[in-house]
Amino acid sequence: MRKVSIGLSLLVWVLLAYGIFWALAAAQPQAAAPCFTDQDRQHVATLTRAAIDTAFQAHVQKLFDVWISDPTEQPRRAMTGMANGLSAYQRAQANAQAWKPEICR
Fold first, then answer.
1. To bridge 104 with a disulfide, which of 35, 41, 47, 98 should be the other Cys (CB 3.0-4.6 Å)?
2. Whether residue 52 sits in one domain with residue 13
3. Is the peptide bond before 34 cis (omega within 30 degrees of 0)?
4. What is the residue range of 2's domain?
5. What pTM was computed for the model?
6. Measured between alpha carbons, how far is 71 from 53 in angstroms, rounded to an integer?
7. 38 and 59 fall within a common domain
8. 52, 96 in Cβ contact below 8 A?
9. With b meaning 16 or more CB within 10 Å and e meaning fewer, what string describes 40-52?
10. What is 35-77 written as a DSSP string?
11. Tens-level pLDDT at each residue, the chain (105 residues)
């Protein structure tokens, strides 16, 4: 019975802390979205796409490293990781392509 009481008290404190955190975060003023020159926007977009490519390459390398070090349930695990990586890659590239920041005037 005492464990339930301690667990319930802990849960109440965690929820209270969570609520306070979000209340304080909501009260903070939001930073204005930065504007970019057309040249800077293109540069940032290029860097972003390159970073996404690099991250995907690292993901595939890690999948292969895990496959080598732990052959349990392979290649199913690697195929699942690859499907997750491809999905994230496609979404990240689409978001990078759709990024249209305000142009500085």
1. 35
2. no
3. no
4. 1-30
5. 0.66
6. 26
7. yes
8. yes
9. ebeeebeebeeeb
10. PB-HHHHHHHHHHHHHHHHHHHHHHHHHHHHHHHH--TTTTHH
11. 566 567 666 656 666 666 666 666 677 777 777 889 999 999 999 999 999 999 999 999 999 999 999 999 999 999 999 999 999 999 999 999 999 999 888
